[in-house]
Write a structure and sequence with these properties.
By secondary structure, the chain is of the alpha/beta class. It is built from 15 helices and 17 strands. The protein folds into two domains: 160 residues, Response regulator (Rossmann fold), CATH 3.40.50; 269 residues, pyruvate-formate lyase- activating enzyme.
Length: 466
Amino acid sequence: MKILLVQAYLGRREAFPVYPLGLAYISTALYGKGHEVQIFDPNITTNPYDDLREYVSSFNPDIVGISLRNIDNQYRIAPFYYYTYFQRVLEIIKKKDPGIKVVVGGAGFSMFAEKIMQRNLSIDFGLYLEGEESFPELLENLNKPDSVSGIYFRRKGEVLFTGYRPLPDFRKLSIPQRDFIDISPYLDHLESLGIQTKRGCPLKCTYCNYPQLSGNKVRIREVKSVCDEIEYLIKQFGIKQFMFSDGVFNMPLNHAKEICEEIIKRNLKVKWSAWMEIKHAKKDFLLLAMKAGCISLTFSPDGVSQNALDGLQKELREKDVKDSLNLFISDKNIRNLNVTYSVFVNPPGETFLGFLKTIIFFIKAKVYLSGRGNVFLNWIRLEPETKALRYGIEKGDINKDIELLPDNEKGLRKLFYSNFPVKYLDFLIIATFRFLLLLKIVLMKLGLKRPKIIDVDEKEDKYGSD
């Protein structure tokens, strides 16, 4: 069969394009079963809708698969709803060729699979969770989808689910080929091109549904396979930079160390970034990572005060967060590392004193890391199957019938968690950030360089996991 896989359109030009890594894994699996596969990413074209129509016409696929990775940008200051643009892509494909079968998957889809199937009648099949095994199997059973586990499908107008299937053994998946789409648009930014070393997350953060989406047990790739992939990308495409796209790169620590050591051993000349866990990012590991090419890392302690850290179930101490920032401020040996901290405003358990500690941490990091790091403040975006949602409902702060997949962008503004005792302080942060955002826009329009201290861009639309 001819299969066209489409990266969901985000509806605007983001800071940098993100290579469709999930679709590369799916494409490799489908290609291995004898299918002809191409990938289209509307986010790297100047006329996404017209180019999509043209691509469907020229390739004439039997099946179109769409990856819905993110529902929205999860940024309370300036929320943006990707889901509405996903719906527009669906509409264009079906209008162009009503006979095409449409299959949808991705993390965003899996969070709201049944609702998305019910609301979007143009979707023929849905892939729940990871699709490297279920998608090829579905293509062999299009007339009897109920024989394939992990599939949503329609029968007489009713949406049915075939039941859960075990997640794939990540070690057995082939290295994802990157030639199903032109890779060159993704080579200019450090965080555009991703490499996975593991799937699954054992952490228990109250806001995060990673364990539900990818399992609560870590499925680790062999170090040789990871470095073979890096070497393949260097030799085949001349890449010079990438990011480890794991939720947390340095857990387990020994696995991360072995990857760094193997990169050094093979003399692979690349620069990379990663999301890391604070407790396992001691100076000795950071120096090893730098030697292996690490130039940027992100921590998401998500809280600063002990009450907030406990409420978030981060398994961190307040001292861990302070010591980490002080290390990057004072140690000359790691000053070349770019570091970012992601912190929530008013998470579960927060107090007024904790709120003040968060603001002090934010200002300190902004000042001392200026030019070589940053700190981002945000609020928890409520998502299904998370403890933050359950806690909010149990405490009465959140309506039990809250709609987490709203009809429009306006509905997003109601989906951010704030701990009730200090909730009234939110408006101060929001008003300040919106003023700074407006100031940034004005300065950019005037062609003036903005000071680093007012850089309030949203971070990549994920929380991280440490």
